[in-house]
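Review session, final week

We close the course with one last complete record, chosen because it touches almost every idea we covered. It is TetR family transcriptional regulator, a protein from Pseudonocardia kunmingensis with 197 residues. Go through it on your own first, then we will talk.
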Amino acid sequence: MSGYPDKPSGHVSGSVKGRRADAQRNRERILHAARELVHEPGELKLNAVAKACGIGQGTLYRHFPTREDLLAEVYRREMDELVAEAPRLLEIHPPLEALAAWFDRVAAYARVKRDVFAAVEAGTWRDLAAHSLGPIGEAVELLLAAGREAGSVRADAEARDVIVLISWLSRLDDAELDARGSRLLSILVDGLRARRP
């Protein structure tokens, strides 16, 4: 029967693969639209997200039954992308440059974090924050450890210190983040730099 695994091979028919690909594309479009719309003033409306994607509300609800489900996934996606960026940057830059480039990505993450946390209930954002602390701490430690090993990052730099300092970015509004974000992060990079005797 079309759409079901064929019995001995486990092969899935092309029509099911096509539907899965369509569903995945819809999911990506929903997340992209929600990420853009969460910055807009006022409460994020699911019908506005569906309209921005050109999909029906039923399709959106199949992926994300509630607004909080959608916003939580927007935040998780942003956090996952931020964490994945650390090893990628270390492959193409010396450690201190990788750290500085990663901090540039932190500024975008801070905007999404601020807007999502403002839009969800306190219990949800506390859960999201608790979940993200481990992976982000690991990404920071990866960058710091590479810098310590290369002698470009001070030996006493700890991931927790960096997280406390960069968490302040999510408290800034867009204008202040645009005006001060890069400078604040460059000051942080300078503070992490190993001092030459």
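Two points worth writing down before the exam:
The chain is about 75% helix and 0% strand.
Residues 66-197 form a domain with the Tetracycline Repressor; domain 2 fold (CATH 1.10.357.10).
Good luck, everyone.
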